């Protein structure tokens, strides 16, 4: 059963249309990410689910009940933001108890038990008496998470909750979020502009572009079968090269503007002017061999790997290689790629 159902949601601020008719179902217990560039409308959509923003058209249902016009406190949801907004004068336990008090859930004893359980979930049970300023950024974030889950809401809404954390802490919190989600099974909608975060955390990724759903699917589907040039570009930094499809001895080939060709899989059906999407991690480079040639423009040292920026038919092309593969600027290198890994997108 769908836990959250959004039907044809439209939202305008004055004359600016921000959401253009979004329909989306989130199943009970599912972890769905809304992924998209800044300004595409992710936060607005989340705030509409929360009841913090009205809709211009469309409806919101939670567990089969229409809540479109209900205020936030009448919806069984909890939301956690990038700025975690803990109350500085209250200790950790009181901060976590706050939503229970506001909603009048349970007596003192029951509330204390729920607070203890929530703090245990985020492994902060020994910090109950501290004030927020006595905690690190990551710990404060976990208090905010405990506060969001303490009432076991039907739906947990997370708006870029990890973006204030440094890289290491962020990775730890991602793992923690996955584990908490597995343990509690809360229906979760997670907003992020970080594709890696969306792919690693979610059951399903919804890619938004300018107020519309561009593509939705499992992380593997979104990553390996981007349906549009936008999806391909946004996810996994693919290279997009204009080409035509021509017939070759071993099946269809992509022909670039300089006449060079690249073998495609035998089942490739798209014809006409296309964009060829090549993931930088799928490309192999060698000094000799058959295959299209590209010129090395520059090398970026990334520690364990090198990124080469190349030029093919006048287009920039990026390739990730092991760090023991070395070419010099201006050198001509041969590209190879598994034909099955080449995506052909209509142009
Ligand atoms: N209250 C408001 N009044 C007018 N315009 C708004 C309001 N809230 C959002 N917008 C506009 O709506 C568009 C979408 O904003 P939104 O915050 O939903 O985007 P986002 O995808 O979450 O971006 P970010 O990742 O930067 O937070 C933006 O162009 C923004 O300027």
Any overview of this molecule?
- The protein is α+β, with helices and mostly antiparallel strands.
- The protein folds into two domains: 223 residues, Rossmann fold (3-Layer(aba) Sandwich), CATH 3.40.50; 109 residues, OB fold (Dihydrolipoamide Acetyltransferase, E2P) (Beta Barrel).
- Helix content is 24%, strand content 37%.
- The chain has eight helices and 20 strands.
- Strands 6-7-8-3-9-10 form a six-stranded mixed beta sheet, sandwiched between helices.
- Strand 12 and strand 13 form a beta hairpin.
- The longest helix has 18 residues.
- The mean pLDDT is 89.
- The protein binds adenosine-5'-triphosphate.
- The site of adenosine-5'-triphosphate (ATP) has 12 residues, from strand 2 and helix 1.
Task: Map the helices and strands.
Blueprint: E1 2-13, E2 16-27, E3 31-35, H1 42-50, E4 57-62, E5 65-66, E6 77-80, H2 92-103, H3 108-121, H4 137-149, E7 155-159, H5 167-184, E8 187-192, H6 195-201, E9 204-209, E10 212-217, H7 219-224, H8 229-234, E11 238-248, E12 251-255, E13 261-263, E14 273-279, E15 284-286, E16 293-301, E17 305-312, E18 315-322, E19 332-336, E20 343-346
Parallel strand pairs: 3-8, 3-9, 6-7, 7-8
Antiparallel strand pairs: 1-2, 1-4, 4-5, 9-10, 11-12, 11-14, 12-13, 14-20, 15-19, 16-17, 16-19, 17-18
Helix pairs in contact: 2-3, 2-4, 3-4
The structure holds adenosine-5'-triphosphate.
Protein name: ABC transporter ATP-binding protein
Keywords: ATP-binding, Nucleotide-binding, Transport
Domain ABC transporter: 4-235
């Amino acid at each position: 059963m769908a836990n959250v159902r959004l039907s044809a949601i439209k939202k305008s601020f004055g004359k600016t249309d921000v959401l253009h008719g979004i329909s989306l179902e989130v199943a009970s217990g599912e972890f769905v990410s809304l992924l998209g560039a800044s300004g595409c409308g992710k936060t607005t959509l989340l705030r509409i689910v929360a009841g913090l923003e009205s809709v211009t058209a469309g409806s919101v249902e939670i567990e089969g009940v229409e809540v479109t016009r209900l205020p936030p406190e009448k919806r069984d949801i909890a939301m956690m933001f990038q700025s975690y907004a803990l109350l500085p004068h209250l200790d950790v336990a009181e901060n976590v108890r706050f939503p229970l008090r506001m909603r009048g859930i349970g007596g003192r004893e029951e509330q204390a038990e729920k607070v203890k359980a929530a703090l245990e979930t985020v492994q902060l049970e020994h910090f109950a008496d501290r004030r927020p300023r006595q905690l690190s950024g990551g710990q404060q974030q976990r208090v905010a998470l405990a506060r969001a889950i303490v009432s076991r809401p039907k739906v947990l809404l997370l708006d870029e909750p990890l973006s204030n954390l440094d890289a290491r802490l962020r990775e730890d919190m991602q793992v923690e979020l996955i584990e908490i989600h597995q343990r509690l099974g809360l229906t979760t909608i997670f907003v992020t502009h970080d594709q890696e975060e969306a792919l690693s955390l979610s059951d399903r990724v919804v890619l938004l572009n300018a107020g519309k759903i561009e593509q939705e699917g499992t992380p593997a589907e979104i990553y390996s079968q981007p349906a549009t040039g936008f999806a391909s570009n946004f996810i996994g930094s693919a290279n997009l090269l204009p080409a035509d499809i021509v017939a070759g001895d071993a099946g269809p080939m992509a022909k670039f503007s300089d006449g060079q060709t690249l073998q495609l899989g035998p089942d490739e059906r798209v014809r006409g002017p296309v964009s060829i999407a090549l993931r930088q991690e799928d490309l192999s480079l060698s000094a000799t061999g058959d295959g299209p040639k590209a010129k090395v423009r520059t090398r970026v040292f990334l520690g364990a790997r090198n990124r080469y920026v190349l030029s093919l038919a006048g287009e920039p092309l990026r390739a990730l290689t092991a760090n023991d593969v070395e070419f010099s600027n201006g050198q001509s290198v041969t590209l190879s790629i598994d034909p099955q890994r080449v995506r052909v997108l209509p142009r």
